[in-house]
Write a structure and sequence with these properties.
This protein has 228 residues and is mostly beta strands. The strands form 2 sheets. A 12-stranded antiparallel β-barrel has the order 1-4-5-6-7-8-9-10-11-12-13-14. It has a two-stranded antiparallel sheet with strand order 2-3. The radius of gyration is 18 Å and the shape is globular.
Length: 228
């Protein structure tokens, strides 16, 4: 992958912006979390601020997402992604993960030599169910960059509701040794509860609490978060 790939991504965004405004959507936001735990891995051992910005046009979307811990180690992550949804149930996404941390040797964002880059490109295929079939399934593989193992991750989930509050149950596993674990097995299992706290007649604050276990590394986390 070379710099022209980035130019292609930005060209796609410019073409989309040039289309009728009524079909476009720009969504800024941020999460505040007590811990950044992703697919069973704890990043930074700290509360974190996680901003995001997504531009959508029809079934196409492109966006950026980041995370910054608020403790002394200042762990950072900066990602960009491109996604396309098919028939409201299937999506294909390519994500560029990058970690611009001072103590990481490969922290030059514009280095795209695969042998020394810090970028990891991941392809995701996801099935998102309907109200009558409230499940999801996703397959993810790192196919380029700083992961020589080309790690794979699969996830299954179920969405439910109890009175006014919703929840989901999730199970994630890696298929072999790689960034998620030292062998094949379950690395992410737990439940999330969601609630909207009414602040005023026109505004409610979405919050969640997530109980996470990682059977492979024998760890457990309880994470609280809110979305702005």
């Amino acid at each position: 992958m070379k710099f022209k790939t980035l130019l292609l991504v930005f060209a796609s965004l410019i073409i989309a912006v040039a289309k009728p405004v009524a079909a476009q959507e720009l969504t800024p936001g941020a999460d505040l979390v007590s811990r950044y735990v992703w697919r069973g891995l704890d990043f930074g051992s700290s509360p974190a601020i996680q901003p995001g910005l997504t531009f959508s046009y029809g079934d196409f979307s492109i966006g950026a997402w980041g995370s910054l811990t608020i403790n002394d180690n200042k762990f950072q992550e900066q990602d960009i992604f491109v996604s396309y949804t098919i028939a409201d149930m299937f999506s294909v996404t390519v994500t560029d993960y990058f970690f611009p941390n001072d103590d990481v040797a490969m922290n030059n964002y514009f280095e795209y030599d695969e042998d020394i880059t810090g970028h990891i490109l991941e392809a995701t295929v996801k099935f998102e169910g309907t109200e009558n079939l409230p499940v999801w399934a996703a397959f993810n593989v790192n196919f380029w960059g700083a992961d020589p193992d080309n790690s794979m991750y699969v996830e299954l989930g179920y969405k439910g509701k109890i009175k006014d509050n919703s929840f989901d149950v999730f199970l994630g596993a890696t298929t072999d040794a790689g960034v998620y674990g030292h062998t094949a097995g379950v690395v992410y299992f737990g439940i999330t509860g969601y609630k909207d706290i009414k602040i005023s007649e026109s505004f409610s604050l979405p919050v969640f609490c997530r109980f996470i276990t990682n059977p492979q590394n024998e760890n457990v986390h309880l994470v609280f978060g809110m979305s702005l």
